Amino acid sequence: MFRNYLRTAFRLFIRHKAFTAINVLGLSIGISASLIIFLIAHYEFSYDNFVPNSDRVYRVVMDAKFNGDEGHSAAVPAPLSQALQQEVSGLELVVPVMQFQGDATAKVSIQREGAAEPLILKKQAGIIFTNSPYFSMLPFQWLTGSPATALKNPFTVVLTESRARQYFPTEDLPDILGKEIKYQDDFTATVSGIVQDLNKTTSFEAVEFISFATIAQTHLQDNFMMQVWNDWMAYSQVYVKLAPNNKAVNVENQLVALLKKYNKDANKDKANTMRFQLQPLSDLHFNKDYSGFNQRVVPKSVLYGLFAVAGFLLLLACINFINLTTANAARRAKEIGIRKAMGSSRKQLIMQFLGETFVLTLLATIVSFCLAPALLKLFADFIPAGLQAQSLRQPAIFLFLFLLTVLVSFLSGLYPAFVLSGYQPIKVLKAQSFVSGNEIKQVWIRKALTVSQFAIAQIFVVATLIMSKQINYSLHTELGFNKEGIITFFLPRDTVTTHRQQLLNEINAIPAIELASTGFLAPIEEGPAFTNISYAPKPEIKDPVQIRWGDPNYIQVYKIKLLAGRNIQASDSIKEFLINATYAKLLGFKNPEEAIGKQLSYNDKKLPIVGVMQDFHEQSMRTSITPLVLAGNNGDVFHVRLKPNLSGTANWQQAISAIQKAYHQIYPDEDFEYRFVDEMVAHFYQTEQRTARLLSWATGLSVLISCLGLLGLVMYTINTRTKEIGIRKILGASVNSIAAMLSQDFLKLVILANILAWPLVWYGMHRWLQDFVYRIEISWGVFVLAGVAALLIALLTISFQAIKAAVANPVDALRNE
Hints:
Pfam families: FtsX, MacB_PCD
Largest sheet: 8 strands, mixed
Helix content: 40-55%
Membrane topology: Multi-pass membrane protein
GO molecular function, one term: transmembrane transporter activity
Structural class: alpha+beta
Keywords: Cell cycle, Cell division, Cell membrane, Membrane, Transmembrane, Transmembrane helix
Protein name: Cell division protein FtsX
Number of strands: 24
């Protein structure tokens, strides 16, 4: 019996090749999207699942308000870890994690046996300062050394196996113990242990572990601000593991008292507050508010959005199948009538039709699985680096595909199976089945499903347009400074003043350079830099303020306008300030001129305000412009404006090569790395840009699936109205009138789909735009554009088949019985 069912199914597929191809293609698109998204989600949700007792592991984070603006930080004051160990109860482990300043890399020197010169690695990543409990929190396997004592003493270091092989490729692992590694030309550490690489999907990516006790024995004690409670660095984090049966709220209550004890100004009023929280380990990879330095974070909302995209595409494919199968019911009516007359039960017919659907879905699944490696490469920008084509070999993937095949077969085939199996054999054989109320009901169901298809596609189209407009606005709106054609780069850590000035002079002398400046951060940076400044009228205004500094050319490089006063003067130390207009208003000045000459308290010094700058965006469009000062001081960051790339002049790459040459003449052993400021701005919206690109793909696929379904229905409709078209032509109907008649019913459905989709997508995108303080207005033009585009695409889909039917010879149509 099953063999007969399969033979019947394959005969049916071959006989109706066009409808089979449409169904397989539609289902393949939906299943492929679901497979790729499942791979991504499976990878992302596997982060840190291997950690034992992970429900008791937390990271200490901070929530704060500065002048009413909320902020969140994964970094905490450096002395917190010691205070936690000594003054907070209910903790099984306290694990500090600190990194080198700057870009969290270090210069490493290793003297190998038999080598004349040491191995020098200038920018080694993955190095942290931590303690022995780190290896109790994470399940490292020790290859050599003692986990209890390896990091107990200062100037010791534990390596992973991969890092040990990199440093000492010819040594056996036990022989590496006792080897010395020099860091930043500052201190030397002895290898005290080697552990196996985790090789897990994890947020803990360090591969080199220096004993935390080393900090107190070096100048890092001051650099890391180990005694400072009212300031912190992005490189300072603390993890804790609660004792069994203890609750996070108990520890958080103790942290409130701890902060009150060591930082009395932390909660001075409602607009300026600070509080430590415990962030669960399971939240680390998904919470964007507490993204650590260089930590990869994927909000769960993004993953849920991917699930929604996959669900919609699958739904569209299922709708296609239902529509085409029920529309083609007439072709199988006599077969069903004869089967029932010969004794087939309705249950047997339902199983047969579900089986046919399963075979078709299985074929689509096989196609999707074969396409998956190519799709992984095509969507490489959206896929995590650790997710490779080998992931397709996991048992979970095959289980997912099997369950998905069963689910899609059930959803797609259930309704058509009940419809087809419900025909009465007497009416079918008398050709009365298709004038009944059931057929009229099926037509309305098909129309409703078609409307649903195009409504979903229209939601994707409008959402993509609005998101693209907001990203374009964020990237190209006036920021308050000029970002085009400016590069920044750091000098080496040990730069002396004469070298800095020498390089500055040489760069300014390059013909393709418009102007160069030294200073600190660019006007807009991903991480805010706050300092404590107060103004002392009555009452005193003492709020954290963002700070930048640079030489007098700084504001000229970025073309920041002065609203009042003068520019800062050249200085090797901070002696005066420019303030932005927002800070001037906060200080109570109605006009910028009133602020000139007033004194600000900074590091126990009274320093004058010499000018007021126009406001500029120092963060993304999601946040408001905050109070900011620009101090006159040289720094180790160069800001270089390149001349416009006009024809006949040296291009920017040649200018950058000239800068690199001048740099290497002074620092021959250092790498030259630079960034364009406009690329730094674009990086703020990297997630949105990727989401927009993904939505664009989803939009294209949803429109394709919808058009495939529409094409199938048009073909069916034309086949069922062949004689009507022939009669109309004989009676004098024109090609245009027949084509219009065949098209208008479907175009009405597309218009209805637009009307239904617009309120839903408006509400969703309005909610999304609330994340941006500075945002676009949703205009009616976007909906009109999307609606017109949908009508044109539908018209193109319909018109070819409609015109083909309209120009056909009516004699051929009337000859067929």
